[in-house]
Amino acid sequence: MAQESLTPELERTVAAAADAAPAVAALDPRDRAAALVAVADALEEHRTELVEIGTTETGLTTARLNGELTRTAVQLRMFADTAIAGDEVDARIDEADTEYALGARPDVRRMHLPLGPILNFAASNFPFAFSVAGGDTASALAAGCPVIVKAHSGHPELSDATAQVVGDALRGAGMPAGTFGLIHGQENGVAVLQDPRIMAGAFTGSIAAGRRLADIAAARPTPIPFFGELGSVNPVFVTTAAVAERADDLASGLVTSVSGSAGQLCTKPGFVFLPEGHGLDAAIASAAENVAEHRMLGPRIASGFARRRDEILAADGVRVIADGGVRLDDDEQGWVTATVVAVSLDDFRRNHDALIEEAFGPLTIIVETPAGTDLASLLPEFFAGNLTGTVHLSAEEAAGSTGNRAELAALVGALSRQVGRVLFNGWPTGVAVTPAMQHGGPWPATTNDSSTSVGSAAIQRFVRPVAYQNAPEAFLPAALHDDNPLGVPQRRSPAGDSTTWGDAARR
Fold first, then answer.
1. pLDDT of residue 4
2. 308, 359 Cβ separation under 8 angstroms
3. Range of the domain at 80
4. Which helix (H) or strand (E) is 366 found in, with range?
5. Catalytic status, residue 229
6. Is 377 within a domain?
7. Rounded Cα gap, residues 455 and 431, in angstroms
8. Out of 57, 68, 88, 229, which one is annotated catalytic?
9. Structure confidence by residue, pLDDT tens digits, 148-173
């Protein structure tokens, strides 16, 4: 039954998605894949006009948006191949077995099925890759779910233009009416999230907004999964040997990572732990001076960054390395340059509450650690979950041939427990669109730390398991047929195998 709070326009959109869900789920995965490729091709055909709109609305550079559109097309094609491969189906077949170790076993077949209509809240800082045609949309469509996108208010014209391209491509590929829809407005997004026909939500944005939406999803009469990617400060640890080996590269790499896209990236390094006496101040300041000012996404984000920057600069013990700044133009748009500050480990401890909150913009805090500091112990002391954690090592340390190998292994282990991606000798900005990528992490990085919003595993968010017992083949999904017409991976447990369970452990 439709929810009374939906406007007629919203009701049409949600009803169309609900009506389309069985047909989309029943499509041959190869047909879904062809539709995704058609969307990718269409985006690239309309590249010039879309990038022009995006540049005007977001202030992001033409080069950045062209690269992001390419990334969006690539990930659509990746999910096309993912749909055909069928790994997310996780088909398991247990043959009937009269000699089963616990008594007669029935024929049991299990697989994942699409959840149904998905509501995707688009992000502000990635107007292509995490927006209308982004990874959440692509992975949900690949899974066999209709998608409704709640457009971000920061780029409404681009959202409408992209939705037109996506919708036309899907229709041209023969996808059912209602497979894809777009809505605007925060209140409308909340109303649709509460509708019982929506089966899951996806979100990229702030901790406050993501928590509110996750709570709404959980408080429904029938709670639904909500996959939110929220805040992250992405700690970086640099060893003394790494500084000695490549000081200038570390300084320039840090500034590039912090200042790229005006620091409006969820993977920006917010805290860098450097040894006391690192001597990088001059190189960092010089690198920062060479970075031109960049417009932020909008006035609200600029004012929030300016406020957070002032709070950090006012904290006790903070030393400015690169002052940076915020300039407001006549339209109240914020133009920013990189700010890099440093603080001793003791002052970081004393002022933890004032410093730890994310600054969404081009600012990073260097924490200077005394020799002998147990770096692994700093993670649970200072940080909750994060998307990334980074370790910079010397070549000798990377080879595992130094005396501090155990300490470094402990640091890597601690990072593995608190982040979704552990990097070595790199910077966390720039998330590769590749099957093995993990873009998620424990709270507050995400609302569900077993999921990812990048990489082919993102499709697993939008399916659920169902088992069929003693089902006639005529009523089984194709993925569970013995002749496996879809060619998906099937894990079979043949009759008689239970009598040998445990033998491998005895060898």
1. 54
2. yes
3. 8-230+451-463
4. strand 363-369
5. yes
6. yes
7. 10
8. 229
9. 999 999 999 999 999 999 999 999 99
Report the 3 state secondary structure along 98-152: CCCECECECCEEEEEEECCCEEEECCCCCCCCCCCCCHHHHHHHHHCCCEEEECC
Distance CA 177, CA 210 (A): 30
Backbone CA torsion sign across 382, 388, 394, 397: positive
DSSP 8-state code for residue 498: G
Cα–Cα distances in angstroms (integers) from residue 56 to residues 263, 269, 298, in the given order:
19, 27, 11
Backbone conformation region of residue 400, classed left if phi is above 0, alpha if psi is from -120 to 50, else beta: left
Q: Are residues 273 and 343 in the same domain?
A: yes
For residue 1, the model assigns a pLDDT of 35
Count CA within 13 A, CB hemisphere, residue 68: 23
Q: Tell whether 225 and 246 lie within a shared domain.
A: no
Determine whether 266 is an active site residue.
yes
58, 155 Cβ separation under 8 angstroms = yes
Looking at the 3D structure of the chain, how many domains does it have? 2
| 8 Å CB contact between 235 and 379 | yes
Q: What residues in the chain have per-residue pLDDT under 50?
A: 1-3
Beta-carbon contacts of 372 under 8 Å, excluding residues fewer than 6 positions away, are: none
Q: How confident is the model over 393-416, as pLDDT tens digits?
A: 999 999 999 999 999 999 999 999
CA angle 293, 317, 292 (to 5 degrees): 10
Name the β-bridge partners of 94. 108, 493
251 lies in the same domain as 150:
no
Whether residue 225 is found in the same domain as residue 247: no
Can you tell me the distance from the alpha carbon of 275 to that of 242, in angstroms, rounded to the nearest whole number? 10
Active-site position among 57, 88, 145, 266 = 266
Report the pLDDT value the prediction gives residue 29, as an integer from 0 to 100.
97
H helix and E strand count, the chain: 17, 19
Rounded alpha-carbon distances, angstroms, from residue 380 to 188, 367, 414: 39, 16, 8
Q: Which residue has the tokens 């709570």?
A: 215
Contact yes or no for 79/480 (Cβ under 8 A): no
Task: Provide the pLDDT for residue 2.
Answer: 41
In angstroms, the CA 490 to CA 146 distance is 26
Which residues are paired to 339 by β-bridges? Answer: 363
For residues 420 and 456, membership in a common domain is answered with no
Which residues have C-beta within 8 Å of that of residue 188, sequence separation ≥ 6? 7, 10, 150
